[in-house]
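This entry is set out below.
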Amino acid sequence: MTTMTRRTALASMGAALATPALVSNLNAAEVTLRLHHFLPPVAPMQKQFFEVWSAELSEATNGAVEVQIFPAMQLGGKPPQLADQVRQGICDIAWTLPVYTPDRFPIAETMSNPFMVTNAEKSSVAMHTLMDEFGQGEYRGIKPLAFHTHDGGKLHTRNAPVLSKADLQGLKLRAPNQSTGDMLTALGAEVVFFPVTDMVVGLSNGVIDGCCLPYEVVPAFKLQELTSYTAAPAPASRGLYSNTFAFIMNEAKYEGMSDDIRAAVDAASGMQLSQRLGAQFDVFEAGGKAAVEAQGNTIVEIPAEEIASWQEEAAPVHEAWIEKLNGMGHDGAAVMARANELLDAG
């Protein structure tokens, strides 16, 4: 092979090797968004929502947006720090719970009070509306993408079902948040607060008699194996409680994107996303209930009149929340009245 031919061949080989990199660069995402959350990578929320939503956003922007998902707090920190991580730019998007930072996002936390939930889809729409009307100032430096709830909590117990207030007397229960704990205490239960991981240990060794959680949490912690009874309010009643969630984005990151990408993000967020997330959690709820049924556990219904009496017991918890909102510069009574109106509508 002549020197010229060899050079030509090497040049051609070099061009061939360079072509994939060139194509890769041409197709590289214009914007990379880091999504941080606390659930494990095998969680249904990861597989059925985060990955699906991320792929849809990439497709909607013809690949201009790439969402990199970091489950299980892989970017560091603890779940209560997620909102600050978004604000500070440690991550670009996060999924978190307002109750992780009590009283910091009080409007977003309002529907975590007892009996402020119907099903997840309807309650998520109500929460988003409430945030639009009263909570616009809570997330400064952050662009909210969606707000939602899970379905109403149930009472999962080891030794006996709960059908009345009498059944709660002295029962050691793990509560999901402070306001629900206050309500259960008023009903006569002995309430404890600790992480769900400790809850599993507590149920295993008999330190607690049960817990208050939605069905959707059951499979992840194998609660169907640790408890034998589940008590759910009568279908026409409000749920015992629901925690609220915020899906949020760094505002500076959002503002720094091109108009067309911002438009795609807007189309993939807002009220329709809140409703979608709620509907997704209703699906998760059905799956959790199926796990309880497959285990052969006993499911009982707390009568509507009993739930009505429990709601009366919860009234002081609501009054205390109204006063808390008033102290933060809100019209607490108006916020609670509007939340109830939204839940009762339709």
Notes: Residues 1-27 have pLDDT under 50 and may be disordered. The first helix runs from residue 3 to 26. The chain has 14 helices and eleven strands.
